[in-house]
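Summary of Year 1 activities. Much of the first year was spent building the evaluation harness for sequence design. The harness presents a backbone, in tokenized form, and records the residue chosen at every position. We chose the following record to illustrate the format because it has been used consistently in internal testing since the harness was completed.
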């Protein structure tokens, strides 16, 4: 756009809006809406940051147990057998459940 066309366009737009006044509460409504959008963005940002921080904390807690660390096993009932002696390898037949299409 050349400078003359810009000047003509600006002048004609000024002529069109001469005498127009905005509604009295227009600026107040716009400011209120802007504050609301800002609060929503801030809340979303804080929530996301807190979520990422929690995930990192959980990850570091799990990773800090070390590569060879084992979780403690629940106590088993005593059966009278020697725990150092391995169990015999017994193969039991697998019971398969039949699906609704095989009935």
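For this record, the design step produced the sequence shown next.
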């Amino acid at each position: 756009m050349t400078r003359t066309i810009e000047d003509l366009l600006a002048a004609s737009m000024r002529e069109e809006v001469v005498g127009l006044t905005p509604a009295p509460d227009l600026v107040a409504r716009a400011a209120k809406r802007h504050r609301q959008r800002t609060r929503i963005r801030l809340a979303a940002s804080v929530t996301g940051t807190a979520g990422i921080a929690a995930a990192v904390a959980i990850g570091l807690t799990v990773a800090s147990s070390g590569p060879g660390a084992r979780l403690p096993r629940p106590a088993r009932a005593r059966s009278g057998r020697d725990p150092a002696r391995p169990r015999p390898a017994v193969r039991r037949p697998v019971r398969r459940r039949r699906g609704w299409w095989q009935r």
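Helices lie at 3-16, 26-63. Quantitative recovery figures across the full test set are reported in Table 2.
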